[in-house]
Automatic annotation (TrEMBL):
HAMAP family: Ribosomal_uL23_B. NCBIfam families: PRK05738.1-3, PRK05738.2-4, PRK05738.3-2. InterPro entries: Nucleotide-bd_a/b_plait_sf, Ribosomal_uL23-like, Ribosomal_uL23/eL15/eS24_sf, Ribosomal_uL23_CS. Transmembrane segments: none annotated. GO terms for molecular function: rRNA binding; structural constituent of ribosome. The keyword Transmembrane helix does not apply. One of its GO terms (biological process) is translation. SUPFAM superfamilies: Ribosomal proteins S24e, L23 and L15e (SSF54189). Keywords: Ribonucleoprotein, Ribosomal protein, RNA-binding, rRNA-binding. One of the early assembly proteins it binds 23S rRNA. One of the proteins that surrounds the polypeptide exit tunnel on the outside of the ribosome. Forms the main docking site for trigger factor binding to the ribosome. Belongs to the universal ribosomal protein uL23 family. It comes from the Bacteria. This is Large ribosomal subunit protein uL23.
Length: 95
């Protein structure tokens, strides 16, 4: 990827990911082509924190129906980033 800001599309905020923030784990939606090394570099440089671990998983889009028409939501990739003890991302604190 050319730009590090293109790797972190948006934060992924749910009830489960909010409870994971207590363990210093933050979740982002990233492009399907992003790898763990690129994700680690992007988080470290954008938020100025130290990353211990990166876990990724691919989420398959759900099939949805509108009457007789069927469609599919797009697939996406989640990255769960574990930070070093004492590190925080202030961007998430207001959530």
């Amino acid at each position: 990827m050319a730009n590090l800001r293109d790797i972190l599309i948006k934060p992924y905020i749910t009830e489960k990911t909010t409870s994971m923030m207590a363990d210093n784990k933050y979740t982002f939606i990233v492009p399907l082509t992003a790898n763990k090394i690129e994700i680690r570099q992007a988080v470290e440089q954008i938020f100025k924190v130290r990353v211990l671990d990166v876990n990724t998983l691919r989420v398959m889009g759900k099939t949805k129906r509108m009457g007789k028409n069927a469609g599919k939501r797009p697939d996406f990739k989640k990255a769960i980033v574990k930070l070093a003890p004492g590190e925080r991302i202030e961007f998430f604190e207001g959530v």
